[in-house]
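User:
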Amino acid sequence: MEVLQLLISGLANGCVYGLIALGFVLIYKATEAVNFAQGDFMMIGAFVSLGLTNAEYMNLPFWVAAPLTISIMAVFGYLLDLFVLRHLFGQNQTAVVILTIAMGFVLRFVAGIIWGHEPQTLESPLALGDIHIGGVVLGLADVAIIIVTFLMTWFLYQFFQRTKLGLAMQAASQNQMAAYFMGIPVKRVQGLIWGLSGATAAVAGILFASKGAIDPNAGLLGIKAFAAAVIGGFGSLPGALAGGLIVGVIEPFAARYFPAGYSQIAPYALLLAVLIFRPHGLFSQVRVKKV
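Assistant: Predicted structure:
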């Protein structure tokens, strides 16, 4: 029962990593850039939800605040691309990486000014109940995280594989100039994918805040999510989820059965091993660029 309880807890945490990793993969699939502020997007989404929901702030019903939060973060992602990132259009992707790292520091600073640096708890109905199955206790938040994560991964995978917009996004990532000459509105497509990434981060933030307290440093969770995305295969949406689950499951077992501190380095030790023996990730498919 202890092993099963650790497994369930690890899967729930891994799904949060997976949701953040999905944001990494979305940006990469559309622009071939890495958004190192994705974890901070998640943190901002959590705090926006808290600000809309909690009694000391706006006191909106949770089921009204949640979709409103997702919409706000989607608009935030789109406007960020419109007013900031488009000025780097056609530049080396290193510039985007450096910009997103700086953006993460700015977002953590802004969150600290607005909501403070003390941990706060989201007043979520998902945190108010447990499900008992035999000797295993499942929190409603954990169940919601697992279900929502799998549904979002399936939806995004179908979106990229079966819709014209999804295919246009992939084409734009492979060769922006060629996609532009083929009639694809590259800048608008990239704005939409940043908006979609913001919405995904908002979902991750709401679910993460439903599990426990949040503070501005919660955005640093993006480092583990980045490791999960690399482990799964950076261009693969199912791989991002699988990588998140692997990282999430490793942590509680390492904390339980290994000396103190090993759980913190276990995901990165696995990342190092994957980069050595399978550099493209466990579930990636190497393919030739084409438009």
